[in-house]
Every structure is written in C-alpha cells, then in structure tokens.
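Table S2 (continued). Query chain:
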Amino acid sequence: MQEKLIELRSDTFTKPTPEMLQEMIKAEVGDSVYNEDPTVIKLEQAVSDLFGKEAALFVPSGTMANLAAMMTHCNERGCDIIVGDNSHFNLWEQGNVSQIAGIYCKQITNNQDGTFDLEKFEHLISDHTDCHCSRTKVVCIENTHNQCGGRVLPMSFIQNLREICNRNDIMIHLDGARIMNASIASGLSVKELCQHCDSINFCLSKGLGAPIGSVLIGKKDFIARAKRVRKALGGAMRQVGLLAAACLHALQKANENLTKDHANAIKLASGISTGSVVQLDNKVETNIVHLKLHPNIKIADFIQRLAQFDDDEVNELRTITRVNAGECDYRTIRMLTNLNVSAEDIDLAIKKINYVIQKFQQSI
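Corresponding output:
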C-alpha cells in the first residue's frame, strides 16, 4: 500500500509542472535590470493589459511588492497608511513598512468578510492641517482576504471606499495576492475588480503555481518610481526571464486551475463531519477552508495527528494517508486547495480528517 501525502498548508507549496518547466527552458532572456529581458517585458505587458493599468513591474515576492508600493506612495516623512487588523500586511510582513520605510501603520478592525467600517475609516484619516498628526497617504485592502478565509470583497465596499479616498486625496493599494481567485468566484474580470485601485500586488506563486514572482501594477510614473525602490530593496534581477516564463504559463492556465481548486475546497468543506470537535469557520468562496476546533483540543495535537498514521487507521481506512494542515490562529485550522491536489486527493483527505475527528471525539 503506497503512502500518500496531501499538502493543504498553503497554495504556495505547488511545484512546477512538466509543461511549465519546458517553458522555462525555452525562455528568451536578457538583463532585466537594463530592461532587456524580453520575457519579463512580455509578462509585465500581459499583466498590465489584463488589469487595465498603464504599467507593471516584476518583483521576487508579494511582500516586496507591498513594501515597494508603500515606499513609492509615501514619498515624504511623517506619512501613515491604514490597514486591516487581520490583513496579511499587518500580520505576516514583519511590520516592514515601519521597520524599513519609517511609515506609521494605523489599524482598523476587519469584518468577517474582509471589509471594515467605512465611517470609522474616514475618522482615522489625518492630513497635514494638524501638525500633531501624521498624514494619511494610503489605505490597503486585500482581495481575496486570506485571514478571513478567502472571502471576496464586495464591489460596493470598494466603490464606497473610493469615494471617501477621492474626497481625502488618499491612494488605494490592493494586496491582490489571490485576486484571480476573487475573479473566478465573483465572475468579474480582474480589470473590473481593480478599477478603483491605484496600485495592485498580484502574486503568481500562490494558486497560479509559479515557483517565484509577483507583479506590482499601476500608472507609468508610479511604476517608474517603484522600479528605483525595487533596486534599493535588492529586488532587481538579471536574466530572470526563466521565472517570467513560468509566470506566463501560470497565467495562461489560471482560470482552469483555480476553478478546480475552488470546486475542491467546496468538496472538502462539505465532506468534513462537523459537530462538537470541529465547525466550519468560514463561508467557502474560493480555495481556503477554516475549521474551528473545540476549546479542549490543542490545535498542535490535531494537526500533528493529521500528519501521522498507525496500524489501526490503515486497517480501517485501507489507505496510508497523511494530511498537512496549517494554523490560522490558536483554535482555527487552515487548509488550502491547490494545483497539486486532485479531486481524488480530496476524497482521501476527507476520509483521513473524519477519522481523526472521530478519535478526538473521545477526548472531549
């Protein structure tokens, strides 16, 4: 009996497909720092066209794209930005805008769907008229919203936010690491979803399956200034068309692969035996499933048991299955369907998770 490992910790664990590797091998390259890598130029043009913006810039990571965007927008001392308290920006990027760029970061409470109270947002805004206060330059939103379970931001929220920002001369930056997931789930194009945003971070190494790479998108003058910031942050790369080729291939396959991921996430969520041990903790709209554990169960114990097996389990399930799951918070398990997980893998994962749930039922 063959052992099967099903990787659900993140959609960043995907490995290049044979077809993607072939595209990388065939890639035409040049020195991208001198703007002479034709494959990078092709990628940046394709992405800017897709999003309906003027220009784009290839960078190594989404974290760098977000940081470079803030450093470009906040081009004077004493600036602040407003971010959601549950945003990736706030929780998982080391507070880099303060640590590296000297930008003050104000937090606003995220709602369960990734939005926030717009009246409270407007009251958080400060301008140059009061010398005691920093000056608000940017608000950052996230779509889909990672910590909120892959939720898609409502267009009405973004439209209303745009109106407030226009009145107060504030830029909107979108952390759109999974914006293609939002497009698939909503039926709207990324151009429509991003029409009110001044800058966008678009990641190609999550659900799209490229090994490395994000693209920062915006107006030509913004991207020209961001290119200088990228260099200062060590993100200017040379013959990087090899990676851009992988990103182009991922972009071509995005709709097909993400649609499959979403279907698998719904299948996974609906197949899990919820009850006293676990409860589904999010509305599954994209590729993220959150499970809330009973307070008496330690999340580390549950995750560890999912990744193990014993003889009794193998005899009962007739499979040797290990499931890698992640941790969203101290009581919430996080699982992401992805390019390397098939519908058959989801069936095995459901059997395994339900078996573990049954075993923990005896301890509460």
